[in-house]
Design goal:
Helices cover 1% and strands 64% of the residues. The chain has an 18-stranded antiparallel β-barrel.
Length: 395
């Protein structure tokens, strides 16, 4: 959980994957000790060329941009608890199209308290100034108009019991999504989620589990621009397998069903396939293979759509060529189906980078990203290529 806190919540699908290979000791950043607190700080500076900054189907507009992303991580641990806080900013400046300039920020605080050897309580809170990425489903379309901006507040509270054979997990979370522009008020909503899990340890590193979940969405406006009440309840159940850290495989995967119940009486409830996966396979210290997946109901305000189901998969590889030279690559598949219409869209993308570690405080990277979307909706198709060079500083 603490590792997840350290990652920027505003990271987009086309960003690089979180590095999984262990960094050699001579290239590992040394913490700045502030009493019992370990502080890590740094800045990423990236210069990129984007072939289609507005994700247009034709007459693409290209540009260069400079992205500066300072970050700070704080960690405090004891025999009884672990506490982590992080903050990351993302400042983008375009060379020619200044309306695309943006500033984003993510902050979070989270921790785990061990009540006993088998029981623990976790909690997280966070705030994000999120800048909408061009090309994601239902994103703003138009030249010369700045991307949407959101304020997101989120928090969760969980309890875990790990016995000799059985594990129990309970979790509740809340999310408040607020679009800053008044014209986007129909996108404002609160979401409340809960889950309960029962697991059984099959072997030392493998568990099987079953879980139930529920999510309630409450939109600020009674109806959206098309006159639809977007409030809903989604619940379901999944069964899966999880692998504890320490073996060749770690992570978990689960499959089940969800039931979507819209509050608008004109729409029918429906049942769909629910998938959740996050697996890492490390056959050797220098190789890591990843698979992340999701299928389920997501929020939508698309005109004419009763609901939206997303399917997302990302398969990746990471490799250490030499002790200070590493690369990674990922293939991404995304499909969005807009229920109640004939509209759907499919995006296939690729991400690759090579990184050279100069010392424990500096590294250089070359990055490349491509994406292609096909849509049944007019003007939603696009092709995009982004290449860049980056310097990463950490202390």
């Amino acid at each position: 959980m603490l590792a997840a806190i350290a990652c920027p919540a505003m990271a987009q699908e086309l960003d690089r994957a979180t590095p999984l290979l262990e960094t050699p000791e001579e290239y590992e950043a040394k913490a700045v000790q502030l009493g019992r607190i370990s502080a890590y700080l740094g800045t990423d500076v990236r210069l990129e060329y984007d072939s289609n900054i507005y994700a247009l189907p034709s007459n693409e507009i290209d540009d260069e941009r400079l992205t500066i992303s300072p970050w700070l991580n704080l960690k405090l641990s004891d025999d009884k608890f672990q506490l982590a806080a992080q903050a990351r900013g993302v400042v983008r400046r375009y060379f020619k199209n200044e309306t695309e300039n943006s500033e984003g920020l993510n902050t979070s605080l989270g921790g785990v308290f061990r009540v006993s050897g088998s029981d623990s309580i976790s909690a997280n809170v966070g705030w994000t100034r999120l800048v909408e990425e061009r090309g994601v489903p239902e994103s703003l379309v138009g030249v010369g108009t700045s991307p949407r901006r959101y304020d997101q507040w989120q928090g969760d509270l969980g309890y875990t019991h790990s016995g000799a054979r059985f594990t129990i997990g309970l979790k509740g979370s809340a999310l408040k999504n607020n679009a800053l522009a008044p014209v986007d008020a129909e996108r404002d909503f609160n979401q409340y989620s809960g889950s309960a899990r029962l697991g059984y340890r099959v072997s030392g590193m493998m568990n099987v589990f079953g879980e139930g979940f529920i999510a309630v969405r409450d939109f600020r406006l009674a109806v959206d621009a098309s006159g639809v009440n977007r409030n809903s309840k989604t619940y379901g159940a999944r069964a899966g397998v999880s692998f504890e850290p320490g073996g060749l495989i770690r992570g978990e995967a689960a499959v089940g069903v969800f039931r979507f119940n819209p509050e608008d009486a004109r729409f029918d409830s429906r049942t769909g396939l629910s998938v959740s996966a996050g697996l890492v396979y490390t056959p050797s210290p220098r190789w890591a293979f990843t698979l992340d997946g999701f299928r389920g109901d997501v929020a939508t305000v698309r005109n004419g759509a009763q609901a939206r189901t997303d399917t997302r998969f990302r398969a990746g590889v990471q490799n250490e060529v030499y002790h200070n030279l590493r690369w990674q690559a990922s293939v991404i598949y995304r499909r969005s189906n807009f229920i109640g219409t004939a509209q759907h869209e499919r995006t296939i993308a690729g991400v690759a980078e090579i990184e050279y570690l100069v010392n424990r405080n500096m590294s250089f990277a070359l990055t490349g990203r491509i994406a292609s979307r096909e849509s049944t909706r007019a003007f939603d198709d696009f092709d995009r290529r982004i290449v860049g060079a980056e310097i990463r500083l950490q202390y």
